[in-house]
Amino acid sequence: MKHTTTFNLPLTDLLTFVKRCCHENLHDNLVALRDHSHRWIHQEGSQDRIVLAEHVLAFIRSIQGHLAHEENTFFPMIELGARKGPALYPIDDLIEDHAELIVVMHKIKSLAGGLEVTPDMTSDCVSYYEKLLDLERLLLNHIQIENQILHPMLQKIS
Ligand SMILES: [Fe+2]
Ligand SMILES: [Fe+2]
């Protein structure tokens, strides 16, 4: 038997969940990762480490751009739609953004040796890799919740 999950959460509650949980957790992780990346770039270290930190900084800017676009344009459209009737939501563009973010996350992961923690690593390196693993988890959660729950809900009502 096929197992399906249905969500009966009202749209406004789902939006609050996305903003408070998905976005806030991602923002916190990105700020910590940005500070750590800057430290790595300004400390003496291997060229590989600097290259990784520079890629991570560029990735952070892309994710922050995506989150800002959703927070400043998409979410207010949903809030307005909930009061005055649904609008034409830019769902295809956001799904494309999500797919691109996943591709870059994979590139960064492979640049960092799959983010595998090894016994010879310094505690600083372990902590950086843990932040990147947290980023991967938070990013995938964010994408899953929006692509699989929020967007289909909007498509159903529009
Ligand atoms: Fe989002
Ligand atoms: Fe998103």
Structural summary, described in words:
The protein has one domain (11-157): Four Helix Bundle (Hemerythrin (Met), subunit A), CATH 1.20.120. Helix content is 80%, strand content 0%. The protein has helices at residues 11-42, 47-84, 91-111, 123-157. Helix 1 (11-42) runs antiparallel to helix 2 (47-84) and helix 3 (91-111) packs antiparallel against helix 4 (123-157). The model has no long low-confidence stretch (mean pLDDT 92). Bound molecules: fe (ii) ion (2 copies). The site of one fe (ii) ion (FE2) has 7 residues, from helix 1, helix 2 and helix 4.
List keywords for this structure.
158 residues, mainly alpha, Four Helix Bundle (Hemerythrin (Met), subunit A), 4 helices, 80% helix, 0% strand, binds fe (ii) ion
Strand content: under 5%
Rough shape?
elongated
Radius of gyration: 18 Å
Helix content: over 70%
Instruction: Kindly name the structural category.
Output: mainly alpha
Mean pLDDT, all residues: 92
Write the H/E string, N to C. Answer: HHHH
CATH topology heading: Four Helix Bundle (Hemerythrin (Met), subunit A)
Could you say what the CATH architecture is? Up-down Bundle
Any ligands, ions or cofactors bound here, and which?
fe (ii) ion
Assembly status: single chain
CATH class: Mainly Alpha
Question: Number of DSSP strands?
Answer: 0
Main sheet attributes: strand count, strand direction, barrel closure: none
Residue runs with pLDDT of under 50 for 5 or more positions:
none
Number of domains: 1
Number of helices: 4
Euclidean distance between termini CA atoms = 31 Å
